Fold this protein.
Amino acid sequence: MPDFAPVEYVIAATPFAAAAGGVAWQRYAPHSFWYGVGYPLKAAQVYGTWHHVASGCGLTRRRRALRWSAEAFPGMAPVFRHRRRLGRVQIDKAPRLGVIRPTARGLRVPMRLHDGQTPDDVRAALDRLAHAWRVHAVRLHSWKPGRVTLLVTGADPLVDVDLADLSAGLLTVVPAVLETGEPFVMDFRAVPHWLITGATNSGKSTLINALIMGLTTQLASGEALTGEPAEYEGQGVALVGFDLKGGVEFTPYEARMSALATERADCLALLDQLIDIVRARMALCRRHRARNIWHPRISADVRPTPIVVLIDEIAELFLMADKSQKEEVTRAATALLRLAQISRAFGVYLVVCGQRVGSDLGSGVTALRSQLSGRICHRVNDEATAEMTLGDMDRAALAAARQIPANMPGVAVVIGSDGLWHRARSAYRTEEQAEDAAAFYAPLAPEWKTLLAEIDTAGELPELDAFESEFSDATTPI
Ligand SMILES: Nc1ncnc2c1ncn2[C@@H]1O[C@H](COP(=O)(O)OP(=O)(O)OP(=O)(O)O)[C@@H](O)[C@H]1O
Ligand SMILES: [Mg+2]
């Protein structure tokens, strides 16, 4: 048996010990491993291969530059084989990269564009970049003149989504996580109306559960709830449900809702009441010379309660079994469109859900869609619905929505306040969890008759046609 000194054993074992330590580090402290080891290696790989990758992805430009070139010496080849010469030659030049910084889930890569290049040129190459860098995704994070920032995500953060706190302030809910690892914020004061689509079992109701759980806890005043819900009776943000699937979706949350309609006739009446509430608030805004209810001239004690209207299965509202229902359907469609057009400045926000939302439901749907600026498109079965949800926003978003796999329910393509599209996945909240939350926070629900009282105290309600010109600015986000 060979005779090794102890120090030789130590030297031989060192690489194995280091490798085992690295594996354990990565396994038990992935974050610090990423910042300490993964990030420097990945950044070095991106810098080291950048010229090659940019050329393969079509991001280089032909440039003339000063270079040393080796040329044969004419006529004297056997004697002087080569001679180095400085001259201008054509080269492929890659866009310059800035300092690559780590994020929790990947990298942020700043890039300076070549003259004549636009962010769209880079956007067209994002998939190719992701493959070249062997990462899950590369997205265009932001841009300013002449520069873009790419966000590189190493692994799909949507495989396992965990969110503890769904409420993030008045009328702001965080029901999902973006592919970048950042929270997906639904801020109703920035983006008042939302369209949520998806095939059956794609995750619409789960998203609504998370949304309801985020909103149930919120006080209309915007203050944080500190004591027991019973101490804040009737002071919460109001929730109103339209559930034309016979009430199966929203009835479990009825305790926290101020009103719920499950039949078309009830829906019509409720829509009319909502429009009258909006008209009453319009009168209030006029009295205070304010353009919206959040204006400082409207003090907190007279400011009306914000109302979030949740509509499940919009197609049911628009579909008619026979001609006799035509008038009802037209009235419902018109009322909903009116509400969508006028309500945002007056604290009434819409969340419209549907499996199928196509122009075949009637011309009112396209007009309604244009008012619903927040979009969430889960996996869909028909092209028309994806087109309806995202087609007018960004064609690339449409392509991403088509690729949502069936085995990832809750994944959606979202477009929010930044106007950019992202892949996101909702936090998994079951119907039971949402039902428990609705029951627990039930005392917060403002009474519907209290909200209707606004109409009686408003005096003469303004005509809506007059509103269109007077409050036309109020249609911009507030
Ligand atoms: N974010 C999520 N994470 C994990 N699983 C999810 C998520 N969202 C949905 N699911 C799973 O998918 C199932 C169906 O979701 P959901 O009931 O929300 O679909 P839906 O779009 O409302 O369907 P329908 O149109 O039939 O009402 C859920 O029971 C749940 O198991
Ligand atoms: Mg559902």
